[in-house]
Please model this.
Amino acid sequence: MSASGADSPSKPYKILQMTQTMGTGAIDYVYADNANRRLYVPRGNQVLVFDLDSLKEAGKINDARARGVAVDPKSQHGFCSSSPVVMWDAKTLETIKTIEVQGRPDGILYEPLTERIYVLSHSQPNATVINAKDGTIAGTIDLGGAPEQGASDGKGHLYIDLEDKDQVAVVDVKDLKVTAHYDLAGKGGGPAGLGLDIKNHLLFAMCHDPQTCVVLNAEDGKIITTLPIGRGTDSGGFNPNTMEAFSSQGDGTLTIIKETSPTTFEVEQTVQTKPRAKTCTLDTKNDHIVLICVEPAPAGAAGTTNAAAATASADQASRKQGGRKGGGPGMLDVIVVGR
Model:
């Protein structure tokens, strides 16, 4: 049992820890490498690395204008959703190679059964599949829509929500083919976050409009129920240790949904975090949820003038390549929520 799992289940979630790091550049996803106890935050033209327990800075991956990160715990290779994709040694953080991909890399995830990395893109190809061991491309997949977040059951099925189609695509990871599309049928729109209860075959699709969590049967796509969440979800997940799904929202809330049985669910708590803290990751050792956001730099903060100039130049180059906008000087907040 984890440390937090030993606590009373009625104990509420709260912010346990928060750090601020001055810097420049836009952010998107946050990723916990639980095996190596590291936290990755792509920002600007680099991927920042923190110690997952202390939140102290632990290094960085340079020349990587990325949105997300995934690590293969077996080969100990890390990857980020940049163009080109950067591959590194997860122990030393030394870059191994870069991998040219098409589309506009956005989300990214590791699929354990085939030991492959999926780089997701809103434009074609929707998914580029990379062999984690050597960084070679195994193939590409037309998902039939714009992917956001995915989750693998480790048994041959990969589920990916399609934001523009209000669907969840089901992928056969061995054949690299879409086998089904689960329609949300108006119960939720613009799915962004996705949680998966592998044991009970349940999907939790976190949606923008309406602002709901749509719970589906992962085997046939049947909708079981819906629950309300906050505004501006961009990430979510499921913790099998606590049997809770969670969704982080840009309105400064974190929704915790309790699964008391495979057919019974309730919104257990709405945690106040910080505005724009819309992406999150799970620390599986401590049952903590880690979120990130950027706050404007304090007036007169040291180095902001030079930083702003550098960021403006980098962002102009990024826009020419279809990348993210904004991302001037600001404080990166890393927020740890737990019991």
Notes: The first strand starts at residue 14 and ends at 23. The radius of gyration is 19 Å. The chain has one helix and 28 strands.
